[in-house]
Amino acid sequence: MSRVTYHDAARVFTGNSPVRAVDNLRLTVDDGEFLVLVGPSGSGKSTALRMLAGLEEIDEGSVHIGDTDVTSMPPKSRDIAMVFQSYALYPHMTVAENMGFALKLRRIPKQDVRQRVAEAAELLDLTEYLDRKPRALSGGQRQRVAMGRAIVREPSVFLMDEPLSNLDAKLRVETRANIAALQRRLGTTTIYVTHDQTEAMTMGHRVAVLADGVLQQCDTPRELYERPANAFVAGFIGSPAMNLETVPLTAEGARLDEVTLPIPRGAMDSLGGGSEVTVGIRPESLRLVSDEQPDSLALHVELVEELGADCLIHGRTAVDGKRLIVRADGRRPPALGDTVHVVVRDPEEIHLFDAGSGNRTA
Ligand code: ADP
Ligand code: MG
């Protein structure tokens, strides 16, 4: 069993002002799972991974791989393999030598090394390049050699820290599909770090969102999208970002400009009579309507991004000047300077967060 568990694990960097880079992380990655750790730059993703790899101290709590407490075990005894952003291939070695190097150091018989390298090369489509030096490879091929180097070690856990950031956009999309497929075939427990929420959402069985060293939510991509636990996750997951506004709360609902957004009874009760609420509406939850529609919100169009099938309308509300983004049909984009009218498609699609704590209500 290679389940990975962080038990309230913390890493504190001391300096002029101490930083809790990873703050009481409590997280379990199941055996065979592909878990993505996502968050903005500086949120503690690399530190969390390095703590598991043994490259960073664990100042509080503990980390387990399977039933073994690895908290104070040296890196080489932890049975993990890590793929970094910089592949750091040895330039003077061939692809085969690069891939087999760690096995050679472990004095694994030559014949076995050759076989494991051949198998990994086959999986990664690298067979015809085994005799080449890294400089004669494309960026994507080098990335696959770095993966191969990890695979041949047959570790119980793979750790990957932004392994695609050196590839161009098109190759990144292709490679992320290949890595996900490869992980399914190998069935090896994997923790994958990225700052890119699209990458996280398309690759992970579950996605753990970090901010300032604190785990915000760990869930399936769908659940993160549909029920973000707080305003941070709501704004971070999804592109373009969810519209988030803190507005006055009345007995009838949330006041946005001159419109009252209806709030379900249950949600109203759990708001506990505060005077403000943070309302979240995804761009696709807004719908263009005619200007005669009652209770529609008037928006001045400031920017239109035409994406082909869709267009993104960036507008400002007429009264309070709040910025909203609307995803609309790409075939009839409004012009700059127009006024358009929008309504929320379905009150159920309105997300509500406590104006103070940012936590989801109901
Ligand atoms: P991420 O990978 O999410 O971008 P990191 O884990 O690299 O974030 O860093 C998390 C926080 O810890 C940041 O505030 C960073 O400045 C700090 N940090 C990371 N490494 C060190 C270090 N060796 N010494 C002091 N602070 C560090
Ligand atoms: Mg990092």
UniProtKB/TrEMBL annotation:
User: Quick check: keyword Repeat in the entry?
Assistant: no
Q: Which InterPro entries match?
A: AAA+_ATPase (IPR003593), ABC_transporter-like_ATP-bd (IPR003439), ABC_transporter-like_CS (IPR017871), ABC_transpr_MalK-like (IPR015855), ABC_transpr_MalK/UgpC-like (IPR047641), Mo/tungstate-bd_C_term_dom (IPR008995), NA-bd_OB-fold (IPR012340), OB_MalK-like (IPR040582)
GO BP annotations, alphabetical order: carbohydrate transport
Q: Which domain of life is it from?
A: Bacteria
| Pfam families registered for this protein in UniProt | ABC_tran, OB_MalK
* Signal peptide bounds: none
Q: One GO cellular component term, please give it.
A: ATP-binding cassette (ABC) transporter complex, substrate-binding subunit-containing
The ABC transporter domain covers 4-237
Q: Which Gene3D superfamilies match?
A: 2.40.50.100, Nucleic acid-binding proteins, P-loop containing nucleotide triphosphate hydrolases
Sorted alphabetically, the keyword list is: ATP-binding, Nucleotide-binding, Transport
- What's a Gene Ontology MF term here? ATP hydrolysis activity
The family database entries (PANTHER family) matched by this protein are listed as: MALTODEXTRIN IMPORT ATP-BINDING PROTEIN MSMX, OSMOPROTECTIVE COMPOUNDS UPTAKE ATP-BINDING PROTEIN GGTA
Name of this protein: Carbohydrate ABC transporter ATP-binding protein, CUT1 family (TC 3.A.1.1.-)
**Organism field:** Actinopolyspora mzabensis
State the taxonomy lineage.
Bacteria, Bacillati, Actinomycetota, Actinomycetes, Actinopolysporales
